[in-house]
Specification:
Blueprint (H helix, E strand, L loop, with lengths): L9 H28 L10 H15 L6 H9 L1
Protein backbone atom coordinates (compact mmCIF):
# COMPACT_ATOMS: atom_id res chain seq x y z
CA UNK A 1 0.00 0.00 0.00
CA UNK A 2 1.34 3.43 -0.92
CA UNK A 3 1.50 6.17 1.67
CA UNK A 4 1.59 9.90 1.23
CA UNK A 5 4.51 11.80 2.74
CA UNK A 6 2.21 13.05 5.52
CA UNK A 7 1.39 9.44 6.47
CA UNK A 8 5.03 8.39 6.81
CA UNK A 9 6.67 8.28 10.20
CA UNK A 10 9.82 10.33 10.63
CA UNK A 11 11.90 7.16 10.52
CA UNK A 12 10.20 5.88 7.35
CA UNK A 13 10.69 9.26 5.69
CA UNK A 14 14.38 9.42 6.63
CA UNK A 15 14.95 5.88 5.34
CA UNK A 16 13.18 6.64 2.06
CA UNK A 17 15.10 9.87 1.49
CA UNK A 18 18.37 8.25 2.53
CA UNK A 19 17.88 5.41 0.06
CA UNK A 20 17.06 7.86 -2.73
CA UNK A 21 20.16 9.94 -1.96
CA UNK A 22 22.36 6.84 -1.71
CA UNK A 23 21.14 5.57 -5.09
CA UNK A 24 21.59 8.98 -6.73
CA UNK A 25 25.13 9.31 -5.33
CA UNK A 26 25.98 5.77 -6.45
CA UNK A 27 24.85 6.57 -10.01
CA UNK A 28 26.65 9.91 -9.96
CA UNK A 29 29.87 8.37 -8.66
CA UNK A 30 29.76 5.61 -11.28
CA UNK A 31 29.23 8.14 -14.05
CA UNK A 32 31.95 10.40 -12.67
CA UNK A 33 34.49 7.57 -12.38
CA UNK A 34 33.66 6.39 -15.91
CA UNK A 35 34.09 9.94 -17.24
CA UNK A 36 37.42 10.35 -15.42
CA UNK A 37 38.72 6.98 -16.58
CA UNK A 38 38.15 8.02 -20.18
CA UNK A 39 35.65 5.34 -21.16
CA UNK A 40 33.93 6.43 -24.34
CA UNK A 41 30.96 4.05 -24.38
CA UNK A 42 27.70 5.81 -25.18
CA UNK A 43 25.78 4.33 -22.24
CA UNK A 44 28.46 5.64 -19.87
CA UNK A 45 28.08 9.31 -20.83
CA UNK A 46 26.17 11.76 -18.66
CA UNK A 47 22.59 12.18 -19.71
CA UNK A 48 21.87 15.85 -20.50
CA UNK A 49 19.17 16.15 -17.82
CA UNK A 50 21.49 14.63 -15.21
CA UNK A 51 24.34 16.96 -16.18
CA UNK A 52 21.98 19.97 -15.94
CA UNK A 53 20.71 18.80 -12.55
CA UNK A 54 24.24 18.28 -11.27
CA UNK A 55 25.28 21.73 -12.50
CA UNK A 56 22.28 23.35 -10.73
CA UNK A 57 23.10 21.47 -7.53
CA UNK A 58 26.72 22.59 -7.59
CA UNK A 59 25.70 26.21 -8.25
CA UNK A 60 23.26 26.09 -5.33
CA UNK A 61 25.90 24.59 -3.06
CA UNK A 62 28.46 27.26 -3.98
CA UNK A 63 25.94 30.06 -3.46
CA UNK A 64 24.91 28.73 -0.03
CA UNK A 65 21.40 27.75 -1.14
CA UNK A 66 21.73 24.15 0.03
CA UNK A 67 19.34 22.65 2.56
CA UNK A 68 20.16 19.79 4.89
CA UNK A 69 17.88 16.78 5.34
CA UNK A 70 16.74 17.87 8.82
CA UNK A 71 15.48 21.20 7.43
CA UNK A 72 13.60 19.41 4.66
CA UNK A 73 12.01 17.04 7.19
CA UNK A 74 11.03 19.94 9.46
CA UNK A 75 9.42 21.79 6.56
CA UNK A 76 7.43 18.76 5.42
CA UNK A 77 6.47 17.35 8.81
CA UNK A 78 5.93 20.67 10.53
Amino acid sequence: MNKTVAELSTEEFEIMVGQAIDKRLEIWLTQLMDALSGEQQEEKEFRPEFAASLKRSLEQMHSGEGVDIRTIRDRICG
